[in-house]
Amino acid sequence: MTTTNKFLTGSVLALAIAGCGGVSGIPIEKTATDFSKAICSAAYKCCTPDTLMGNDAAGMSEAECETKTADNFRGQLQTMQQSENKGRSKFDQKQVDACLAAIRGASCETLTSIRSLASIPECNTTFATPEVYVGGTCGQDFECMNSVCLKEPMAWEGTCGEGAPVGASCTTDHCAQNLACDPRDGNIDTDSVCVQEQDVGGPCVDNFDCKSRVCSSSGAGGGMTCQAATAPQCFYGGGCAAGGGRPSLAALLLMGLFVVVALLRTRRRAR
């Protein structure tokens, strides 16, 4: 075989592999389609137009929901493919399968009592195993082992590190893993702080301190605590969320998607 033929054969093979989901084999199209069908079928079976309207990816019909949701997942999975190609993370099919099974098996009672996909335990995941140690180069939070990707403003890449602790400013700094960046006042640019989201009954200052997104007075001078949500909810109805740390892919998808790890630090007024 001539050198030219070898080159052409190699190029065709590379394109064929990429067309099947990338050189590392992430099944991008199948995964995006599976999620869009599972999510949108459940959303239009269990939720109301009013509870879906906060999430643009939900669309105005089940068919539109499937198209937009698949597009979002496709973009995110392509980002994950690029990460895996660089050796920074490893796609985890078992996590994907567990999340899909949980969505398909969930009752409407469950799906209308939670505010996000990430509230389904099996879906509170990035669907990837991180491969970058603290101090290593990263582009996304999900690439970092027990840490987050710390970047300079406008930078594409950074370094895996601890991140800002509870109570620290996150106006410019990235919160530590599993913490959320809460802009206390959407009209002030410098008051954002890292918080640990609280369960019902936990202390709070505002709604973004609470997993339920409801913070109110407990009465009798007892201060503010997180309360159970009383308004109708939908697991696919949220438009966006406060964030920090390494969010799940499901959480990111609520906001319009993975370009989203940055989305996690947007100001409340932008939400």
List keywords for this structure.
single chain; alpha+beta; three-stranded antiparallel sheet; disordered C terminus
Summarize the structure in words.
The longest helix has 24 residues, at 62-85. Helices cover 32% and strands 11% of the residues. The chain has one domain. Residues 1-23, 239-247 and 252-271 have low confidence and may be disordered. The protein is globular, with a radius of gyration of 20 Å. Helix 2 (28-46) runs antiparallel to helix 4 and helix 2 packs parallel to helix 5 (93-105). The strands form 4 sheets. It has a 3-stranded antiparallel sheet, with no helix packed on it. It has a two-stranded antiparallel sheet with strand order 1-2. A two-stranded antiparallel sheet has the order 6-7. The protein has 271 residues and is of the alpha+beta class.
Largest sheet: 3 strands, antiparallel
Q: What oligomeric assembly is this protein in?
A: single chain
Order of strands in the sheet with most strands: 3-5-4
How helix-rich are the residues, as a percent range?
A: 25-40%
Tell me the distance between the termini: 59 Å
How many distinct domains? Answer: 1
Number of E-type strands: 9
**What is the string of helix and strand elements?**
HHHHEHHEEEEEEEEH
Q: Please work out how many helical segments DSSP would assign.
A: 7
Alpha-beta content class: alpha+beta
Shape: globular
Average pLDDT score = 81
Low-confidence stretches: 1-23, 239-247, 252-271
- Beta strand %: 5-15%
Rg, Cα atoms, Å: 20 Å
